[in-house]
């Protein structure tokens, strides 16, 4: 039979992720998607404590903040369009109340500091080689927060520059966490404002920087998410309506390739059981008061309880609250 796809090979890693692993995801939307999926499957996972980050410089800077900074203070905040924000964070963290804003970002920051010091696998997704600095101070910003464009300098990070900032951050992390494994991906989401050629140059520079990191650091690995989309899933049925972001089907396919390669067999099997129960939760009855639906609720509750007894580290309180 003639093959309908070009199959992208995923290299077998020399480590495995299981339910005892501590995980940390940081970077672009793809890190957010994969990290949230692992959280829903009850892996011990910290996901983007600064919000979505796109370029190597912002990611490296924020990783160093976790090692060197105690907390964010009022002096770290800026104000624009009636909102308080930090140039180290994504726009979704913005708030009208500066005290409440600091409480939110410091809670996430404190949890991330604890996780990074003992995490087993740090997953970094790079989205673009372009980064921004404030013209008035030269300060690197993670997000422009809809301020006027003339306040920022936009710069392209060559592969050697991206390599150096990431290498520096990873070496500092290794000093406090020698056993950490680092897994890089490049986001398959195109930055179309730069055009097809500009986007490809940006992604290529990221891939070259990661290759250099793999050669210099034994604990650095690469998962070919970008290549999976460019080759194995190069059909528009795998994309969302904007023709740039991956569809839910595509995300599930990439997750299957990732989980089969990186999860231990026992953890992969358990994740499948949890996923089936989560799919049952998505059922929304037309008549919830019926005996048949109440029987379904009782049976589902029992399945969750059985899993908690079998695996005491699992907790489904949040899921059970939504089951009524």
What does this structure look like?
This protein has 324 residues and is α/β, with parallel strands linked by helices. Helix content is 47%, strand content 14%. It folds into 2 domains: 22-264, 3-Layer(aba) Sandwich (Rossmann fold), CATH 3.40.50; 283-324, no CATH class. The protein has helices at residues 29-40, 56-68, 98-118, 159-176, 195-216, 225-232, 248-262, 265-281, 291-310, 317-321; strands at residues 22-27, 44-47, 77-80, 83-86, 121-126, 130-134, 140-141, 152-156, 181-186, 220-222. Helix 1 (29-40) links the parallel strand 1 and strand 2. Helix 4 (159-176) crosses helix 5. The longest helix has 22 residues, at 195-216.
Brief overview:
By secondary structure, this protein is α/β, with parallel strands linked by helices.
Largest sheet: 5 strands, parallel
Low-confidence segments:
none
Calculate the terminal CA-CA distance, rounded to whole Å: 49 Å
Overall CATH architecture of the largest domain = 3-Layer(aba) Sandwich
Q: What gross morphology would you assign?
A: globular
Strand content: 5-15%
**Domains (count):** 2
The overall strand count is 10
Figure out the total of helices.
Answer: 10
Q: Please, what is the average pLDDT?
A: 93
Under CATH at level 1, the class of the largest domain stands as Alpha Beta
By CATH, the superfamily of the largest domain comes out as: SGNH hydrolase
**SSE string, helix = H, strand = E?**
EHEHEEHEEEEHEHEHHHHH
Strand order across the largest sheet: 2-1-5-9-10
């Amino acid at each position: 039979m003639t093959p309908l796809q070009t199959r992208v090979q995923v290299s077998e890693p020399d480590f495995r992720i299981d339910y005892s692993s501590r995980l940390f995801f940081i970077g672009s939307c793809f890190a957010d998607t994969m990290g949230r999926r692992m959280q829903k499957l009850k892996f011990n996972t910290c996901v983007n404590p600064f919000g979505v980050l796109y370029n190597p410089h912002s990611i490296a800077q924020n990783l160093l903040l976790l090692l060197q900074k105690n907390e964010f203070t009022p002096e770290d905040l800026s104000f624009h369009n009636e909102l308080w924000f930090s140039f180290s964070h994504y726009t979704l963290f913005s708030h009208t109340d500066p005290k409440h804003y600091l409480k939110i970002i410091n809670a996430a920051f404190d949890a991330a500091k604890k996780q990074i010091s003992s995490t087993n696998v740090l997953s970094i997704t790079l989205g673009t080689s372009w980064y921004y600095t404030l013209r008035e101070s030269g300060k690197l910003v993670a997000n422009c927060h809809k301020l006027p464009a003339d306040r920022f300098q936009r710069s392209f990070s060559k592969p050697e520059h991206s390599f150096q900032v990431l290498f520096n951050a990873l070496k500092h992390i290794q000093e406090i966490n020698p056993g950490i494994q680092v897994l890089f991906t490049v986001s398959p989401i195109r930055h179309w404002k730069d055009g097809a050629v500009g986007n490809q140059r940006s992604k290529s520079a990221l891939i070259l920087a990661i290759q250099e990191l793999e050669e210099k650091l034994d604990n650095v690995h690469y998962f070919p998410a970008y290549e999976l989309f460019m080759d194995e899933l190069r059909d528009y049925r795998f994309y969302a309506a904007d023709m740039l972001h991956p569809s839910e089907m595509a995300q599930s396919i990439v997750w299957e390739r990732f989980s089969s390669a990186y999860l231990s067999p026992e953890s992969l099997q358990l994740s499948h059981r949890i996923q089936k129960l989560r799919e049952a939760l998505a059922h929304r009855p037309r008549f919830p008061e019926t005996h048949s639906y109440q029987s379904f609720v009782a049976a589902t509750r029992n399945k969750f309880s059985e899993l908690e007894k079998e695996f005491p580290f699992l907790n489904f309180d949040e899921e059970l609250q939504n089951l009524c």
